[in-house]
Write a structure and sequence with these properties.
globular, 16 helices, Zincin-like, 62% helix, 367 residues, alpha/beta, disordered N terminus, 4-stranded mixed sheet
Length: 367
């Protein structure tokens, strides 16, 4: 009897729970339908707004293209596409940039066949679409009143460089930080070297060529010569992760090997003393020294490191090559705008002029 009563109570409880769950489920379903209805309503409003806006946008775009149609020019294997008003200023920049690269690239130019460049005015978006955007490089070009020919030429250099980087082996791309430089950057390289406070860079400025090789990242994974012990200690103090290394106490006791072990225990290394600008300047400088077809040699698909490739391109020992590069960078050191002699002469002349007008004034006259 008691057993049947217990069973009846359990059945009643389960049925009530089931009804409650069903009611809750129905309420949730009703709420979900309301949300979906609201979303559909908003989506309908958005699509209506788009239908109202697109015809006017399309009309404006069509009018712009009618007044300034899209055209294209061939520069070597490159195809430059843009509105005619922009192509007028882009063409001389691309032709000059290609005249620099063509002898260096040599037979590898066929790898650039069909590479397209979409030139646009300043930062504007293009009013036309290309069929295959994966192979299109966007290039900002300015009109004379907004940008000098030198800026347009720099844009063309950068654009062609973007097309060259994917052709390089992984080791070279990594060393260049996946960025290609522009010619004539030795002065910029000097500024970066002069601003670096790393011990290796300072020794490079003192003509210690092994230090130059080290800070340029031409010793593979060996970065032990980049910074002094004191500099490594400061870097480690500023990092909670590095400071927690078991090798940190020994490093702070001026153990140079322990400072290196701190980074290795965390599978990392310090930031490079010299960024990609100096490396890119070295690469272009070496290509120019190596002459025609040098880029083709750089493209050889093997596992050679960058130092080996530089030596192979030029046929010269690495220390001699880096020593000459360092000297050329120092020769490109920016000069003062005006020397002290001219400044002194200008000061004297202005003093004479002011004295002349002062003596002509009534307050300064005597008698």
């Amino acid at each position: 009897m008691y057993r049947s009563l217990v069973v009846s109570m359990c059945v009643l409880s389960c049925s009530l729970a089931a009804r409650g769950a069903a009611a809750q489920g129905t309420a949730l379903q009703d709420r979900a339908r309301e949300v979906r209805a609201a979303e559909d309503s908003l989506l309908g409003l958005q699509r209506a707004a788009e239908r109202a806006a697109y015809p006017s946008d399309s009309a404006r775009t069509a009018e712009r293209l009618r007044r300034d149609p899209v055209d294209s020019i061939r520069v070597g294997p490159l195809l430059v596409v843009g509105q005619r008003s922009v192509l007028r200023y882009a063409e001389p920049a691309f032709r000059e940039a290609w005249s620099y690269y063509e002898p260096l690239i040599g037979r590898a130019a066929n790898r650039l066949e069909g590479q397209r460049f979409a030139v646009v005015e300043g930062g504007r978006n293009a009013v036309y679409q290309t069929r295959d955007s994966t192979r299109v490089i966007r290039v900002p070009i300015g009109r004379p009143r907004l940008a000098s020919p030198e800026l347009n030429l720099s844009s063309a250099y950068h654009a062609i460089g973007k097309a060259l980087v994917p052709l390089l082996p992984f080791e070279v791309r990594s060393w260049l930080f996946d960025v290609w430089g522009v010619p004539g950057q030795l002065e910029s390289a000097y500024r970066h070297i002069a601003r670096s406070g790393a011990d290796g860079t300072r020794r490079c400025m003192r003509r210690e060529i092994p230090a130059c090789v080290g800070v340029l990242g031409l010793q593979g994974e060996d970065w032990s010569t980049w910074y002094s012990v004191e500099q490594l200690q400061n870097l480690i103090r500023n990092s909670d992760v590095l400071r927690a290394s078991p090798y940190a106490p020994a490093c702070f006791r001026n153990d140079a090997h322990a400072c290196i072990d701190v980074y290795r225990s965390r599978s990392t290394r310090p930031n490079t003393p010299l960024g990609g600008n100096v490396r890119q300047a070295l690469m272009l400088w070496t290509l120019e020294k190596a002459g025609a077809g040098s880029f083709e040699k750089l493209m050889v698909p093997d596992s050679s490191d960058v130092a080996t490739r530089l030596v192979s391109m030029t046929g010269r020992p690495l220390p001699d090559l880096i020593s000459e590069f360092r000297n050329d960078v120092e020769l490109a050191r920016p000069r003062a705008r005006a020397d002290a002699g001219r400044a002194a002469i200008a000061g004297i002349l202005w003093s004479v002029v002011f004295s002349f007008f002062a003596l002509r004034s009534t307050r300064w006259r005597i008698g």
